[in-house]
Write a structure and sequence with these properties.
Strand content of chain C: under 5%
Number of domains of chain B: 1
CATH architecture of chain C: Orthogonal Bundle
Oligomer: heterotrimer
Shape of chain B: globular
Order of helices and strands of chain C: HHHHHHHHHHHHHHH
Number of domains of chain C: 1
Helix content of chain B: over 70%
Mean pLDDT of chain B: 87
CATH topology of chain C: ABC transporter involved in vitamin B12 uptake, BtuC
Distance between the termini of chain B: 48 Å
CATH class of chain B: Mainly Alpha
Radius of gyration of chain C: 21 Å
Shape of chain C: globular
Low-confidence stretches of chain B: 283-291
Distance between the termini of chain C: 58 Å
Mean pLDDT of chain C: 87
Chains: A alpha/beta, B mainly alpha, C mainly alpha
Order of helices and strands of chain B: HHHHEEHHHHHHH
CATH architecture of chain B: Orthogonal Bundle
């Protein structure tokens, strides 16, 4: 039984009259890929928003290990170990791929005024370290040929990989990926899946939202089904596939 | 014990000032509704309105003042369309920030064109100097009453246009969502032009009323007054004309009461403070986008 | 010969003012160009610095006739110059931090209005709090360090060198900051606050630091200005200064560190040149009354003769600058179009 890295309990979020997330719960086991599925409007992205602090939930708790995340600022949550990518990648188009990656480097001396001005040696050393790490990750993501290209020039799939790389720079405890394959051509899609599996082999914990059910069933160790903002079912793919409630609400209607 | 008649007098002055501010705020908010950027050049339409009347009166002294005002309002209204067509519409697709910065440039061009023509001398309009008429402990001159009346009528007219005419309907539609309105077949460019006529015309009238009340005025008064108009507009909710009217009343009263009971040296600063507080306290729509 | 000396003095004056505006523009560039903070109240930080330098160095009120101010610390020159400038820089930074603490999270249009309004309030305070600022009469006895020792001409040259050196030092320091991870973080925050937050950056704090630093540099500019002009009067700190700096930034190239200084120099030269136009006109008409003089006078005849005419035309041209740069060359003279397009992309 794997250790639980992230626990979401009774999470509720209302927007005016609409309840986007309805007392949802979620247990994320360490070192596995957990898929979150559900029809459009099921509250999946909002769930991620609540976990990462973009939106403040109306009720419920999110615990990373022993630490309660609800109520903390997004940057603090990222710092605590939660990395998140977006459906539409929010990369810095005006910077090169390398700069995008280097941006994410944590706790750099050179990021403060005093550090940047008074400690050039430390800054240079850290930059070298960052560069090495960036090279490593870019190679891992097969983006190394594009290191000096402007991020704005990348294709959709390349942007997804870059966003993933940036988040990996944080060395996060858990990765929340919002539709990592949406709008990506099949070749790059296969690369992304391959890299996700490699990350799992490395011991990373991943939670992903996806619409491609076949992929989710193939790739994920655990699947959580959201429906109208509430958790309908959770368990291994084989169980979820066969769950009559899930079929009724979701699988029966979905063709793709 | 609060001096009631003093308070009533301050409130009255506040209401008088609010008439001017309301016209300005409504005009600004209407044009924001369709153009979606903060127009820093708006204040210049007030100055142009005032000085067009000054100019007309100077070259044709026999012209009745109300007629001169009407001419000025229409002229500045069309000037607004010309300005929009020349400077704002060509870059309308670039987003609010370039438009805002451009509007600073337009403000400078309009203001200093007026100064180049009229010099920096302060001018007034031929308005008779009157004694206030006492009414229930409050003093009000006939001219001041006329100002309130004119402003009220103008706003009633705008209300009429918004609620009961086709133009009003398409203005409200375009103001909600310009792209959607275009897709729905509305000639949004015509709507924008017509909105500018009303917006700049309202500003011109506000400028004239301002001059009537606070003469003499310099051609540069528009930019400074902009902050007060912004205050009223934002207080009422940007893009909401009826909110702007209410905001104007609140701002006018704040300035008047503040000057009367706190320090008279600061008058406009009270509006500034309200503006800053509104910006900081008002939730969603003002806080940075995504969160 | 008088014309030559006049020319040199003119160039020295223009260059000194240009150095001061260069500092102002670097400060604004840090706030807007690199961090995306729309600051329409820059003159307030300039004024804060200038008045601080004045208050710290002016003679005590008792010794100045007609003085309404109450604080003059009379720090001795030239040694005290370092102190007055440090105080000026600090004040600019503190004012910016105070404004920034609340305003920094506002969306850019509202930040523009808020900073504009706050600068307006600050101006009213300068005018009304006579015990501090001597009101509209101004603090007119700000010492010019070493003026008596050097004499007018030599001092002008020496002060130019001092102003240029200050500009150079600030330019280099800020340049270093921008090359460091600090600069990278600013640019990311500028493009997408949301993404930066998601990557663990405390964007509120980062914006506050950039804003305060820009204000501090503007404060330093104010201090250098105060000791140059020798008097600090409210009329010198009107909104026009803010927008002149903006014009310099837009022209030179937003987010271009070199561009900021280049833009400042071009704009100050342009501004000061209108003085030259009147002098040149008068000299030409006087020197060639029957030929060139007649032509020039005829050309000038239909133009309004009031003294505000030339300055108005100057300001109109500055306004046109805003309009034309934004429309046709948003990156200005030295800016990078790639960087400029992403600005405001979070609208």
């Amino acid at each position: 039984m794997a250790r639980t890295i992230l626990t979401v309990e009774g999470l509720t979020k209302r927007f005016g009259g609409l309840t986007a997330v309805d007392a949802a719960h979620l247990t994320v086991p360490e070192g596995q890929i957990t898929g979150v599925i559900g029809p459009n409007g099921a509250g999946k992205s909002t769930l991620f928003d609540c976990i990462t602090g973009i939106t403040a939930p109306d009720a419920g708790s999110v615990r990373l290990g022993e630490t309660e995340l609800v109520g903390r600022a997004p940057h603090a949550i990222a710092h605590a170990g939660v990395g998140r990518t977006f459906q539409t990648p929010r990369i810095f188009e005006g910077m090169t791929v390398r700069e995008n990656m280097a941006f994410a480097a944590v706790a750099q001396t050179g990021e403060s005024v005093v550090g940047a001005l008074a400690r050039p040696g430390a800054v240079a050393a850290e930059e070298a370290e960052t560069d090495a790490r960036v090279d490593e990750l870019l190679a891992f993501l097969t983006l190394d040929p594009l290191a000096t290209a402007y991020a704005g020039e990348l294709s959709g799939g390349q942007r997804k990989l870059l966003e993933l790389g940036r988040v990996l720079m944080l060395d996060p405890t858990v990765l929340l990926l919002d539709e990592p394959l949406a709008g990506v051509n099949p070749t790059l899609g296969a690369t992304i899946v391959d890299r996700l599996e490699a990350l799992r082999t490395d011991g990373r914990t991943i939670v992903l939202i996806e619409h491609d059910l076949e992929l989710v069933m193939r790739l994920c160790d655990t699947v959580v089904v959201l429906h109208h903002g509430a958790t309908l079912a959770a368990g291994p793919p084989s169980v979820i596939r066969a769950d009559p409630q899930v079929i009724d609400a979701y699988l029966g209607r979905m063709e793709t | 014990m609060v001096d009631l008649s003093g308070l009533a007098q301050a409130l009255t002055f506040g209401l008088i000032e609010a008439s001017v501010i309301a016209l300005g705020a409504v005009g600004l908010t209407l044009s924001y509704g369709v153009t979606r950027f903060i127009n820093f050049a708006y204040g210049e339409f007030l100055a142009w309105g005032a000085f067009t009347v000054v100019f007309l009166v100077a070259i044709a002294p026999a012209l009745p003042l109300p007629l001169a005002v009407a001419v000025a309002v229409v002229a500045v209204g069309f000037m607004g369309v010309a300005v929009s067509g020349a400077f704002f519409e060509p870059i309308a697709d670039r987003g609010g920030l370039p438009l805002l910065i451009t509007s600073i440039g337009v403000a400078f061009v309009l203001r200093y064109l007026l100064v180049a023509i009229a010099s920096t001398d302060a001018r007034s309009l031929p308005v008779p100097l009157q004694r206030p008429v006492e009414w229930m402990g409050v003093g009000l001159t006939p001219v001041q009453a006329v100002v309130i009346g004119v402003a009220a009528l103008a706003m009633l007219a705008i209300h009429g246009v918004l609620q009961y005419t086709t133009l009003g309907t398409v203005m409200r539609a375009t103001s909600g969502n310009r792209e959607l309105a275009t897709v729905a077949g509305i000639d949004t460019e015509a709507v924008v032009r017509r909105t500018w006529v009303i917006s700049a015309g309202a500003a011109a009238l506000a400028g004239v009323l301002y001059t009537v009340l606070y003469a003499p005025v310099r051609p540069t008064f528009g930019f400074g007054y902009l902050i007060i108009i912004f205050a009223a507009t934002l207080l009422g909710g940007i893009g909401r004309p009826y909110g702007a009217m209410l905001g104007a009343v609140l701002i006018g009263v704040t300035i008047s009461v503040g000057s009367a009971y706190l320090s008279p040296a600061y008058d406009q600063a009270y509006a500034f403070i309200v503006l800053v507080v509104v910006l900081l306290v008002r939730p969603e729509g003002i806080r940075r986008g995504t969160f | 010969m008088a014309i030559v000396t006049g020319w040199v003095a003119f160039v020295v004056t223009v260059a000194t003012i240009a150095c001061i505006y260069g500092l102002l523009t670097i400060g604004l560039n840090l706030q807007f160009g690199f961090t995306g903070l729309l600051n329409f109240g820059h003159v307030a930080f300039f004024a804060a610095g200038a008045y601080t330098a004045a208050i710290v160095s002016m003679p005590p009120p008792g010794t100045v006739p007609g003085a309404r101010y109450m604080i003059g610390l009379a720090v001795p020159m030239p040694a005290g110059l370092l102190l007055t400038l440090a105080a000026a820089t600090l004040m600019g930074g503190v004012l910016a931090a105070l404004i920034g603490v609340s305003a920094i999270r506002l969306e850019s249009h509202y930040l523009a209005i808020a900073t504009f309004a706050l600068a307006g309030i600050f101006y009213d305070v300068l005018v009304n709090e006579r015990w501090l600022t001597n009101g509209t009469f101004g603090m007119t006895q700000v010492p010019k360090p070493l003026r008596a020792t050097l004499g007018a001409d030599a001092w002008a040259l020496a002060y130019l060198l001092f102003a240029a050196a200050t500009l150079a030092v600030v330019y280099l320091l800020v340049g270093r900051l921008l090359e460091a991870p600090f600069g990278r973080v600013l640019r990311g925050v500028r493009e997408s606050t949301a993404a930066a937050e998601m990557l663990g950056k405390d964007t509120d704090r980062i914006k506050l630091v950039a804003f305060s630093l820009g204000g501090a540099i503007a404060g330093l500019a104010g201090g250098v200005y105060a000791h140059y002009i020798g008097s600090v009067v409210t009329g010198q700190f009107v909104a026009g200064v803010t927008f002149t700096v903006w014009a310099a930034l837009l022209l030179g190239g937003v987010a271009s560190h070199r561009g900021a200084v280049v833009g400042a120099f071009i704009l100050v030269a342009f501004q000061q040149s209108t003085r030259f136009i009147t002098t040149a006109y008068d000299a030409a008409v006087a020197a060639f009354p029957d030929t060139l003089g007649v032509v020039l006078t005829a050309l000038a005849a239909p133009l309004p003769g009031h003294p505000a005419f030339l300055p108005s035309v100057r300001f109109m041209i500055i306004g046109l600058l805003f309009i034309l740069v934004i429309r046709f060359r948003p990156a200005g003279v030295l800016g990078d179009p790639q960087e400029v397009t992403v600005m405001g992309s979070e609208e």
